[in-house]
Every structure is written in structure tokens, then in C-alpha cells.
Design goal:
- This protein is of the alpha/beta class.
- The protein has ten helices and nine strands.
- A four-stranded antiparallel beta sheet has the order 7-8-6-9.
- Strand 7 (178-184) and strand 8 (187-192) form a beta hairpin.
- It is elongated, with a radius of gyration of 23 Å.
Length: 233
Amino acid sequence: MVKKLIIQIGFVTEERSLLTKLTVKEQIEFYGTLKGLNKEQIDKLLDEWLEKFEITGYKNRKIKELSKGNQQKVQFISAVIHNPKLLILDEPFTGLDPINVKLLKDAVIELKNKGCSIIFSSHQMEYIEDFCEKLIILVKGKPILNGNLQEIKESYAKKNILIKGDINIEEIKNIEGVLSVSKEKGEYVVKIADISVAKKVFAKIKDKDITKYDVVEPSLNEIFIESVGGIHE
């Protein structure tokens, strides 16, 4: 029973755990055999994954000869070659360039859509927002935030207003409930205490030359910083 359960699990560790003197094919055959696959099954699945990750020419290359990004792809393939029902990812995108991040993210989403349950551990909030449905934030092993990701964001009182156009920053800052005003990437970011303040801000700028006015949920990064606060070390 325990062996059957283990075979249904895939795990990508933060630190690469590869047998670097082996070729890519030998590495995947080793892990695939441990997961109950025969060599014909492994070879077929490996070819599919190598094509998906755009490294078909590396099948017989030694792992130590590959770049860090391509080694991470091989590690990912090692974890999913047997189509696990549960996949555990620990900081899987660390050190990857944007192209390789996208390839791995697409692969994770594809597995998720096929019914694979995924536990994703990361300090990079932007990745969590991309494809996680439920969230738990732990500090010193204790949960300080737990629940459906979208519900957490919607229930968070503070909001952001994104504005493009000609506005008087000081006038906006003086509105009760406005926490701060900053300019980022060509637009003003107005942080407000709650959604009711949005009407006050709009009333102040509605006659101005405005090309964008959008009330959005705060980023998960903002929620994380405020939730953790002084208890973070």
C-alpha cells in the first residue's frame, strides 16, 4: 500500500538532485523504473517531454554538460515521467530565465488540467498568483493566512486604484481614506483603505483628462507583507 502511494507522487526539490554523470536518458530510465515503468514506456514518454521542453538533442548528453535551466527541466521530467496523481514542487523556478519559467509553468498547468493535484511551495508570490487556487502562508510553522486565493484577495479591505492621466497628486493624497499615491510604470497607484474611498477619488478626478481608472485587488505580495509584518524574520 505504501509503495503504491509513493508511485503516485512526484517531487521536485529546490536543490537539484540529479545524477550528473549519467546521460539524460539514463537518469530518466533510473527514476522511471523506480516508479514501475518499463524502458519502452519511459523512452516514449521521455521523447514527448524532451520535445515539449525543446531539448530533444540532449537525450544522450551527460547531465553535468547541461545548463542549469536544462538540468531543472530534466529534474522536472524525473518527477513526472510516471504521470503522478500528486506533484510537490519546492521553488521549481529558482534560477530560471523567463523562457524556461514559461515552459515549466505551462507544463504544471497542463498537469493540473489533467487532474494532477499540486502542492507548490514558494516565496515568489507572482508564481503563486498565476496558478494556485488555495493558499496557506506559514510563519515558523504556523498558518497565519489560509483559504481560497481569490476569496482572500476579495476580502482584503485595502484596494488599489490605477490611474493614467493628468491628476493633482496632493489633492488625491488629502482625500480621507487614501493611504498613499505613487507613480509606477507611467500610471498612478492610489492605495485606499477600502472600496468606499474609490468613489471619493473618482469624484475628484472625473473632470480631468483621464485615460484609465481601474480599481483592482492588491497583489498577493502586498497581502503577504502586511499579514506577516513584524513576525517575519
